[in-house]
Amino acid sequence: MPKIGPIQLPDFPLLLAPMEDVSDPPFRRLCKMHGADLMYSEFISSEGLIRDAIKSRMKLDIFDYERPVGIQIFGGDEEAMAMSAKIVEAVEPDLLDINFGCPVKKVVCKGAGAGVLKDVDLMVRLTKAVVKSTHLPVTVKTRLGWDESSINIDEVAERLQDVGIQALTIHGRTRAQMYKGHSDWTHIARVKNNPRIHIPIFGNGDIDSPEKALEYKNKFGLDGIMIGRAAIGYPWVFNEIKHFFQTGQHLPVPTLVDRVEAARNHLLWSMEWKGERLGIVEMRRHYTNYFKGIPNFKEYKNRLVTTDDREALLGVFEEIIASFSSVVF
Fold first, then answer.
1. Please, which residues bridge with residue 143 across strands?
2. In terms of DSSP bridges, do strands 95-100 and 69-74 run parallel, antiparallel, or are they unpaired?
3. Are 174 and 140 in contact (CB under 8 A)?
4. How many CB atoms lie within 10 A of CB 233?
């Protein structure tokens, strides 16, 4: 069973990916309820933490019921990364993760996220600065390389392990691929099978079903899987995968009532954490995923994304249950 510092994880753990504007405390709470073994915050700008930016500081919120949980930071300056690691340490997460994988332009242009894949020496210096500045276990999430002609994950894994990281998650795409095409886990398996590597290696990318999770578990021999987009609007994916591993059978799919309950809890917890107005507005991006596959749902979707009143929204949920009780997924 993999360990990250003092954190003992179960055999072949399922990790919730750190996703911007998704992996906040309300969403993490749902995923924990449905089987996630280790979760990460949204990524947090090291510069934003140092400036005391309200949004960055808010992302530091963690709760005991979601442990073990890690906070993820990104940045391209050694001093800023070291200082932000000390800030993170003060809120006592179970681990600190460094994002060297985000492919979006606004992050890469700052010499952070996947942008650092073009300069492995800088990646090593940034990682070393963080490791030296905190007593927390430090982990890294990254990609295979900048593009197909510069896949450097083998060197990255060895050098980051050498400066003290205690686990590595690898997304099986290059930065150039963004989220397109297929992830290639053969590179991740090669890192895992490197006799020099002794830290846990987790794979990420394209896991969207229990069958694929089991196939990749058996085929690539990694220490666990990180799941991202497949969990958005579908937190049940973790327990579904675990059940399939154990029995070879599928759990019953979530019913309409299950979906409404999850969306309603997500909304209520979002309002509780963010405030009513912001919680209502930021929840709107999730409804399509919770209610995917329901025919003739457009009217209710429109009401969910335009209604500004808490009680009225809760009333829409009740109407959905009454109107679509016969829907079978």
1. 171
2. parallel
3. no
4. 23
Q: What tens digit of pLDDT does each residue of 4-54 get? A: 999 999 999 999 999 988 999 999 999 999 999 999 999 888 888 888 766
Q: How far apart are CA 151 and CA 146, in angstroms?
A: 7
Could you tell me if residue 142 is left (phi over 0), alpha (psi between -120 and 50 degrees) or otherwise beta? beta
Q: Which residues sit opposite 7 in a β-bridge? A: 4
Does the annotation mark 102 as catalytic?
yes
Q: What is the DSSP letter of 10?
A: P
Per-residue pLDDT reduced to its tens digit, 197-251: 999 999 999 999 999 999 999 999 999 999 999 999 999 999 999 999 999 999 9
Which one of the listed residues 9, 38, 39, 102 is annotated catalytic?
A: 102
Evaluated on CA atoms 271, 15, 48, 107, the torsion sign reads negative
Number of helices (H) and strands (E) in the chain: give both, helices first.
15, 10
